[in-house]
Design brief:
This protein has 225 residues and is α+β, with helices and mostly antiparallel strands. The chain folds into two domains: 79 residues, Glutaredoxin (3-Layer(aba) Sandwich); 106 residues, Up-down Bundle (Glutathione S-transferase Yfyf (Class Pi), Chain A, domain 2). The protein is built from nine helices and four strands. Helix 1 packs across helix 6, helix 4 runs parallel beside helix 6 and helix 5 crosses helix 7. The radius of gyration is 17 Å and the shape is globular. 37% of the residues are buried. It binds glutathione. Glutathione binds next to loops.
Length: 225
């Protein structure tokens, strides 16, 4: 049985959980990180010596780094579907996954922290506007690409859409004015029709640390997603 270690509200864990659900995999979620702890244990260091989430165990095989996990799951359980079999199409998927991490994730996650994870009276409008502009500037590159393609690799949804789809949910759900990005918005609406995206990415993310802790407790009592 596949084990996914992490907390389901963590930005690096969500792509792994979404992938497992797109692939229809049976897995157990081992709640770890944040208030769930466990990262300091010797047992966890054997799974991920960085003591970070996410990590997986697939039988005896352990793997960490979220994008490596997404690729592994798609290669092993979704070859020819989420992991394109054509080498160049696969390379385009890789390109957008790397670009998500190197270019889009940073400004969007800092924008998320500066808004959702900061109490309203402590928010800095200048910083928020700067991060919004950086995020928008990055996403204009994706917008131009999506003008000719419904998904990042062409006609089909692939692993190339997964990290960026997680970034997009945060970008479109923080409380800021956003300049239009028509092609990214249309692609986001396409993703929003996918049940696995609705159930595992489009989650309420709490507006203050107390609410966030309460979400984690609720999640712990659910035991699974
Ligand atoms: N590059 C790593 C980053 C992992 C990472 O930063 N994980 C954070 C959560 S998003 C973490 O483990 N934080 C400690 C915690 O959640 O307790 C990946 O993509 O897997």
């Amino acid at each position: 049985m596949l084990e996914i270690w992490g907390r389901p509200y963590s930005s690096n864990v969500i792509p792994v959980i979404w992938t497992a659900n797109e692939l229809g995999l049976d897995y157990t979620l081992q709640l770890a990180g944040g208030s769930f702890g466990k990262l300091e244990t010797d047992a966890y260091a054997k799974i991920n010596p960085n003591r970070m989430i996410p990590a997986i165990k697939d039988g005896d095989f352990a793997l960490w780094e979220s994008l490596s996990i997404v690729r592994y799951l798609c290669d092993r359980y979704g070859a020819g579907m989420l992991s394109p079999s054509d080498i160049q199409t696969r390379a385009i998927a890789d390109q957008w996954m790397e670009w998500s991490a190197s270019r889009a994730f940073g400004p969007v996650i800092y924008l998320f922290f500066a808004t959702v994870r900061t109490q309203p009276d402590r928010r800095d409008p200048t910083k928020i506007e700067k991060l919004r502009d950086e995020a928008h500037e990055a996403l204009t590159i994706l917008d131009a690409h999506l003008a000719d393609h419904p998904y990042v690799c062409g006609d089909d949804f692939t692993m190339g859409d997964i990290p960026l789809g997680c970034v997009a949910y945060r970008y479109f759900n923080v409380e800021v004015e956003r300049p239009p990005l028509p092609n990214v918005e249309a692609w986001y609406r396409r993703l929003a029709q996918r049940p696995a995206y609705q159930n595992h990415v489009m989650r309420h993310f709490g507006t203050n640390p107390d609410e966030w802790a309460a979400l984690e407790k609720a999640c712990a009592s659910e035991g699974v997603l």
